[in-house]
């Protein structure tokens, strides 16, 4: 039996930076890290590779660790029959993306933990997600799977080879449906919006039924449709979905921030992980919707996300960064206990009958839907009604309800803070830092949250300083040049750089964006399709890793190609950078023939198509103050959300800026502060007051 002993096992993972991998050193499985050495060993031993992909925040990964990978007998079986490889999906999204696709084609489902059985060349021939320790619920036990897969490998290898060929054929078919070139037109935007509208749940607002996932890209696209057309159904989709999410259990009613997804249709019972890749885009969406729809509650949801990061990692936010995630669990056998409450716990925490009754009604304990499935005595806190309705039910003034709830929330949060808290992964993955940073910048822009803007600028500055390598791109983990690069990091950082410019009007951010644009074209552009690969070509150490992937659907992060195209179009509009526009057009054409069934999941791409094919609004403020904090006109422009718009603040000597529309330049006067707006080829008369500019941006039709 192949057992190298505890010390050697521990040594393999002891220097890893990933907390998920470091945890593996405590297990009796002889884990290897991803790389050629593991596959060379599999070839030498003529045995399959067992690939475990998971994450530090993943509840079912913890369960499978405890039940199987920490079990001595199961570990001995693995060590004898396989070369086991453990991968952190946050650290290696490129590895995860390829094997998620393979296992989904094999079984019809994916997720984490991902359990895949690979040939020594890296091809998947069997897989699944969570396997239980004993047979049950339609799933075979993990030991039975381990034994049978090994038997097939040694006694029926043709069957494994057939599975590899079948997966390869289906992967090529899926790739072909995703990268079909075509004509870029507004019809793509319309079809995507129709697909989203068809999936909207009018009873329990959100896209799809259960489980329900946030879709900030879809909400952004439909918000733009409402502002373009005034269609009331589009306003309802955005407003009712955000309201349902923000009042639901998917939003942490005590500490702020959104959990990863809801297991039910009403957004009440979440999977409790909090992810940067959800909260960054949702912060952007809530801030924009608060501005566009003038809804105070959306600003409160945005403030809750900001508060979450200040709560769990204040030193990191102060230094220039945001954590990657917060775990769902605080220990073994925990299933959301940190986040949930029994009625007795609520009563003890408040120690006041009036406050308890207020909390019980306000936070939905009277609704059986708030009960946790595996422990009905525990409840997820959610808001089944607004304060006005609650005040009517209790016979109290609404102001008293609001102030009473603030006191209740603070007391419950203080008690919860005494519980063992789930782990916060402070790993600074560049793209995720950029997503959260961009959200903070947009909160500063649309809501006037100055400190959030400062935190966002610090984070993006840190990413650029510690992750950008000239000619190489943005490293995946900030401060670690050996990681990456991957497309998502380049795209999300590029977008955040442009947000930083629009907020500060400091040209250095645009210069950096131009540098990153050059990296995208040189390292990621696929000359055959015209789209962007998820990673640069050239890794042939494991065969599957050089198979190109062209991410176009939001799953759940904004798609790398969609986000890159949108950011490139913004850059081109602000600067006149012809190379950025050409690259954006190439990306958009590469996917314009996308399978219609995928459109509902490609909202970020559709938003880029909208910016390429529909009128773009350029707003220019001429002000001798020429500093963002001193110009009332510029502040008004920032605060007013308008689809497909870019903003410039110019001094009198900058009025001839070549990137501005020609018609705008022709009408500019510099004798006193004025604001100019052109949409497409149509320009509005200049305005001289902040109120006039807000009215103009809200009413000026698209050209």
> How would you classify the helix and strand content by structural class?
alpha+beta
Spatial sequence of strands, sheet with the most strands: 1-3-2-4-5
In quaternary terms, these chains amount to single chain
Low-confidence stretches: none
| Proportion of residues in β-strands | 5-15%
Number of strands: 18
Portion in helices: 40-55%
What CATH first level of the largest domain would be assigned? Mainly Alpha
What count of helical segments does DSSP give? 28
Question: Tell me, what's the shape?
Answer: globular
Q: What is the CATH third-level topology name of the largest domain? A: Glycosyltransferase
Distance between the termini: 74 Å
Largest sheet: 5 strands, mixed
Task: Determine Rg (CA atoms, Å).
Answer: 26 Å
Q: Indicate the CATH architecture of the largest domain.
A: Alpha/alpha barrel
The average pLDDT score comes to: 93
- In the residues, how many domains can be counted? 4
List the helices and strands and how they pair.
Elements: H1 6-13, H2 19-24, E1 32-33, H3 36-45, E2 49-54, H4 59-69, H5 72-81, E3 83-88, H6 93-107, E4 114-118, E5 124-128, H7 142-155, H8 157-178, H9 186-199, H10 216-229, H11 232-247, E6 261-262, E7 270-271, E8 274-275, H12 276-293, H13 296-312, H14 314-319, E9 325-326, H15 343-350, H16 353-362, E10 371-372, E11 375-379, H17 387-394, H18 398-416, E12 424-425, H19 430-447, H20 450-467, E13 468-469, E14 473-474, H21 487-504, H22 507-524, H23 560-575, H24 578-590, H25 603-613, E15 617-622, H26 632-639, E16 645-650, H27 662-667, E17 674-679, E18 682-683, H28 690-699
Parallel strand pairs: 1-3, 2-3, 15-16
Antiparallel strand pairs: 2-4, 4-5, 6-7, 8-9, 9-12, 10-11, 13-14, 15-17, 17-18
